[in-house]
């Protein structure tokens, strides 16, 4: 789980414009095995995005920032699932 946590932090830092360049694989390549072998589907993406939304809301992040964050996250979905 720690490895996944590190990947998630690196990814979030990258997509939200944080310092440092992302050194991981592109999103499609990084998720390909999970899609093909483990059955990762868009529904799973939506569940994770929902957890992020809930967390941001519980932390009382201002609504405009939540909307911006969720918009950024949404742009990664078609990349991950090969719809771009």
From TrEMBL:
This is Group 1 truncated hemoglobin. The keyword Transport applies. It comes from Edaphochlamys debaryana. Keywords: Heme, Iron, Metal-binding, Transport. CDD domains: TrHb1_N. InterPro entries: Globin-like_sf, Globin/Proto, Hemoglobin_trunc. One of its GO terms (molecular function) is oxygen binding. It comes from the Eukaryota. The keyword Lipoprotein does not apply. SUPFAM superfamilies: Globin-like.
């Amino acid at each position: 789980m720690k490895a996944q946590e590190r990947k998630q932090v690196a990814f979030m830092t990258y997509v939200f414009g944080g310092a440092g360049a992302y050194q991981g694989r592109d999103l499609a390549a990084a998720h390909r095995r999970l899609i093909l072998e483990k059955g990762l589907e868009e529904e799973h993406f939506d569940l994770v995005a929902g957890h992020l939304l809930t967390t941001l809301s519980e932390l009382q992040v201002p609504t405009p920032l939540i909307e911006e964050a969720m918009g950024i996250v949404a742009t990664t979905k078609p990349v991950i699932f090969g719809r771009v």
